[in-house]
């Protein structure tokens, strides 16, 4: 896990790369990579790479970046005239298999890193190399022979990659704030990004809160040529046909989860895991201890929840005993949250109402010496764990078919909305208006503020501009269109929106705030392709554990991982809306 930076002055009249700007961008990501830094600039000054390293594989200097592939097919620290150079963030979990394949074809390797595998794979396959990768990644490769820059990001968007293109120079980094630290990008606001945050509690890709910065989309592969040509392709596992596999469904699923966990444990440093009382982390723990005996596990508890049904610490400790992990439980108080709040806001790369729990558990993981930890993110999306999988079909299939319901619902909301919202959630006023399809019903369910409330938190004209540009109802429907069953539609929505834009992004910034790499075995292309057609639920996932989970965990009602932020905000506007306002104000002012 690392931080990457790149500048490409692709127009002939563009100013040459300013080394000091590259240094500023790279320096802003020091916590992403405290183990080393590297800079490279091409001989003509038109291309520059930066890198901050968190050493996980091949810990010595041989694995340092930027890395180049020389004319004799060996890697080295890049010279100014190097033709193939990479700066890369992430982990390729199948790099050992790929390396063996490349070695069988006569290629010679100098390091034990996955970075070197990427260089050889690109030289052989070009941009199609991404079709062979299993992992989380974002990288930039300079191809001096073709005179262009290749950018790529993993299919689920686990690793971030942001670009700013002013029409003559392209700037690339792992963080929005790092690009801003370079000092060459305007702070002009992006209305769509602002609207998206207040609608969902996160900024939907490819938008950011700045007009001049966008995300490379998940699965995106972008080529920028010296001639200004920009070519984009994309791998989207959500629209690919699931792979049918022979065998009993539970056996197939068990093998797929075990295989993913095994790949996610590949590391030259110790790997720990986040352990709650939920089925996702418990299932990962059950598979992980099969190959990593005595793995370190961590649980985050909250003082305000002690002794309540939402206190996961006692059951997590029992799970640890059951599976023989080395367990640590750390308790968090509201006072500690308030004390750490400025640091949280500084670490947060884009505004989000989530991520506080990940920030603190990552802090504790780092405090016990871990650089890598496994997380259960992705289980609810893949195996239907959210209540949206039950409530949305009831809503859409129950009343959504009524002709003219949306129009009537809008009229009802306009007439009765102000009265209803005095006594209950504003969502009740919009129930009929947004029950007509899965996309709109999802917005109703997941929304922080509803569309008609946006002028209450943003300038009305700015909000209207952002709504038009973001076009969320059309985009949500586009997400569901390729899928036939209600379950598949909701899985696509939760994966492409909530998981990708919030959970995975939060895992990245919150982990990197403490130089901790967070890996997600349940967010894996190979597992997804094997499991999507099986339609297994969370219980089916849990039954794949080699050593069965305790009955207390299997029968425990789902509560979700609750963080008592609203309770910690006493004396202010309570709830997630109040937290959203605070986050937005802090991030816009940053």
Number of strands: 18
Question: How large is the radius of gyration?
Answer: 24 Å
State the CATH topology of the largest domain.
Rossmann fold
| CATH level-4 homologous superfamily of the largest domain | HUPs
Coarse shape: globular
CATH architecture of the largest domain: 3-Layer(aba) Sandwich
Mean pLDDT: 91
Describe the largest sheet.
Answer: 7 strands, antiparallel
The count of domains is: 2
CATH class of the largest domain: Alpha Beta
Oligomer: single chain
The number of helices is 23
Q: Can you offer a commentary on this structure?
A:
It is a single chain. This protein is α+β, with helices and mostly antiparallel strands and 590 residues long. The chain has 2 domains: 2-234, Glutamine Phosphoribosylpyrophosphate, subunit 1, domain 1, CATH 3.60.20.10; 249-384 and 491-589, HUPs (Rossmann fold). The strands form 3 sheets. The chain has a 7-stranded antiparallel sheet with strand order 5-4-6-7-8-12-13, covered by helices on one side. Helix 8 links the parallel strand 15 and strand 16 (326-332). Helix 10 crosses helix 18, helix 12 packs antiparallel against helix 18 and helix 15 crosses helix 17. The longest helix has 27 residues, at 486-512. The two termini are 25 Å apart. The model has no long low-confidence stretch (mean pLDDT 91).
Sequence-ordered SSE layout with sheet pairings:
Blueprint (H helix, E strand, L loop, with lengths): L1 E8 L9 H9 L8 E6 L5 E7 L13 E3 L5 E2 L7 E9 L2 H10 L9 H12 L9 E9 L4 E6 L8 E4 L3 E5 L2 H6 L9 H10 L13 E2 L4 E6 L4 E5 L14 H16 L6 E4 L4 H10 L7 E7 L10 H11 L2 E7 L1 H14 L8 H12 L4 E3 L4 H5 L4 H12 L5 H16 L5 H4 L8 H9 L13 H11 L1 H9 L5 H27 L4 E3 L5 H7 L6 H5 L8 H4 L10 H4 L6 H15 L1
Parallel strand pairs: 14-15, 14-17, 15-16, 17-18
Antiparallel strand pairs: 1-3, 1-10, 2-3, 4-5, 4-6, 6-7, 7-8, 8-12, 9-10, 9-11, 12-13
């Amino acid at each position: 896990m690392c931080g990457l930076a790149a500048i490409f002055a692709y127009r002939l009249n563009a100013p040459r790369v300013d080394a000091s700007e590259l240094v500023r961008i790279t320096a802003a990501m020091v916590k992403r990579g405290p183990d080393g830094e590297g800079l490279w600039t091409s001989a003509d000054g038109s291309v520059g790479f930066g890198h901050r390293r968190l050493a996980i594989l091949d810990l010595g200097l041989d694995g340092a970046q930027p890395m180049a592939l020389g004319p004799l097919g060996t890697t080295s620290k890049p010279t100014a005239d190097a033709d193939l150079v990479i700066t890369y963030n992430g982990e390729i979990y199948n790099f050992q298999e790929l390396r063996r394949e490349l070695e069988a074809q006569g290629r010679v390797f100098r390091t034990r890193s996955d970075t070197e595998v990427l260089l050889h794979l690109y030289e052989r396959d070009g941009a199609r190399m991404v079709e062979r990768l299993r992992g989380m990644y974002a990288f930039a490769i300079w191809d001096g022979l073709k005179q262009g820059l290749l950018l790529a990001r993993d299919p689920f968007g686990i690793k971030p990659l942001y670009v700013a293109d002013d029409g003559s120079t392209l700037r690339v980094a792992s963080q929005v704030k790092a690009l801003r630290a370079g000092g060459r990008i305007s702070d002009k606001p992006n209305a769509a990004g602002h609207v998206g945050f207040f609608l969902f509690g996160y900024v939907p890709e490819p938008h950011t809160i700045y007009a001049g910065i966008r995300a490379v989309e998940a699965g995106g592969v972008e080529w920028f040529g010296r001639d200004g040509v920009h070519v984009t392709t994309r791998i989207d596992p959500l629209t690919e046909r699931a792979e049918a596999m022979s065998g009993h469904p539970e056996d197939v699923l068990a093998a797929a989860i075990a295989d993913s966990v095994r790949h996610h444990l590949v590391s030259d440093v110790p790997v720990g895991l986040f352990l709650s009382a939920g089925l996702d982390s418990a299932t990962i723990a059950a598979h992980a201890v099969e190959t990593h005996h005595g793995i370190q596990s961590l649980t985050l508890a909250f003082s305000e929840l002690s002794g309540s049904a939402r206190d996961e610490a006692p059951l997590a400790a029992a799970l640890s005993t059951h599976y023989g992990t080395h367990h640590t439980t750390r308790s968090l108080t509201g006072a500690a949250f308030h004390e750490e709040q400025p640091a949280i806001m500084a670490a947060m790369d884009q505004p989000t109402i989530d991520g506080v729990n990940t920030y603190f558990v990552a802090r504790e993981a780092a405090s016990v010496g871990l650089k890598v930890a496994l997380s259960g993110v992705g289980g609810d999306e893949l195996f239907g764990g959210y209540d949206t999988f039950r409530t949305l079909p009831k809503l859409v299939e129950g009343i959504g078919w009524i002709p003219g319901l949306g129009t009537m619902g809008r009229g009802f909301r306009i007439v009765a909305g102000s009265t209803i919202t005095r006594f209950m959630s504003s969502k009740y006023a919009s129930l009929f208006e947004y029950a007509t399809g899965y996309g709109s019903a999802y917005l109703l369910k997941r929304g922080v503020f509803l569309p008609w409330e946006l002028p209450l938190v943003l300038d009305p004209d700015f909000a209207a501009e952002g709504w038009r540009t973001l076009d969320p109802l059309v985009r949500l429907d586009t997400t569901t269109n390729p899928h036939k069953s209600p379950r598949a539609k909701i899985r696509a929505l939760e994966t492409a929106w909530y998981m990708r834009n919030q959970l995975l992004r939060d895992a990245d910034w919150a982990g990197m705030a403490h130089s901790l790499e967070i890996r997600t075995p349940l967010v894996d292309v190979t597992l997804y392709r094997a499991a999507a057609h099986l339609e297994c639920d969370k219980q089916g996932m849990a039954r794949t554990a080699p050593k069965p989970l305790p009955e207390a965990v299997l029968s425990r009602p789902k509560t979700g991982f609750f963080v008592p932020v609203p309770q910690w905000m006493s004396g202010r506007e309570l709830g997630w809306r109040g937290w959203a306002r605070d986050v937005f104000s802090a991030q816009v002012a940053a």
